[in-house]
């Protein structure tokens, strides 16, 4: 009938969605603090995450951007585990299963950002993968070298190591401490105190995490279902080699 008003039922799902704003939980965290948490297994990876795929050049480019870039690196996306743990967790680098006793309230599980965090953590721990990655103070950029570093080239694993005494010892041994120490301490301080924005979601299921990851990565390379399936076999003590996965 003309002029009649039909009653429209509004879904409770819509009401709940408008009452909750996930961006209010976003905060920042320094690279140094993130690396310490990774070392202590306070930041881990969900089992479905594939292995590290970045080349050494990509890692170099990230370090260059963190030192010289004029805009911040894109945020890290993390699932905060409070009520149980539906997705088993693994450690960075060696991808060992993390015991459930280590997954306490407010545990941080990385949904998106593994490659960036791994790059910084490898520098933080002087990982062998970074043996040929240096900061060239004369050219003002990070370089991949094939021979021993020259006097103006400082290995990344020494420069950004968690132990600040390693840099001093290295420069003393090379007779360079009076020339380079002050400048390199500033570089080290900038990168260690570099802030990443952390976007937090709470207690996502595996399906919700994968959906979130897919939305974040629509413009880039996608992790295939097969890769995720291979990664999840770790819980059954079957570890697919990196070459075979690729």
List keywords for this structure.
38% helix, 246 residues, elongated, 6-stranded mixed β-sheet
How do you describe this structure in short?
The chain is an alpha+beta fold. The chain has helices at residues 12-19, 31-39, 56-68, 114-124, 156-159, 165-174, 177-192, 206-216, 225-232, 242-245; strands spanning 27-30, 43-46, 76-81, 89-90, 107-112, 133-136, 141-144, 153-155, 195-202.
Topology:
Elements: H1 12-19, E1 27-30, H2 31-39, E2 43-46, H3 56-68, E3 76-81, E4 89-90, E5 107-112, H4 114-124, E6 133-136, E7 141-144, E8 153-155, H5 156-159, H6 165-174, H7 177-192, E9 195-202, H8 206-216, H9 225-232, H10 242-245
Parallel strand pairs: 2-5, 3-9
Antiparallel strand pairs: 1-9, 2-4, 3-5, 6-7, 6-8
Helix pairs in contact: 2-4
Give an overview of the whole structure.
The structure is a single chain. The chain has 246 residues and is of the alpha+beta class. It has helices at 12-19, 31-39, 56-68, 114-124, 156-159, 165-174, 177-192, 206-216, 225-232, 242-245, and strands at residues 27-30, 43-46, 76-81, 89-90, 107-112, 133-136, 141-144, 153-155, 195-202. It has a six-stranded mixed beta sheet with strand order 1-9-3-5-2-4. β6 and β7 (141-144) form a beta hairpin. It is elongated and about 85 Å long.
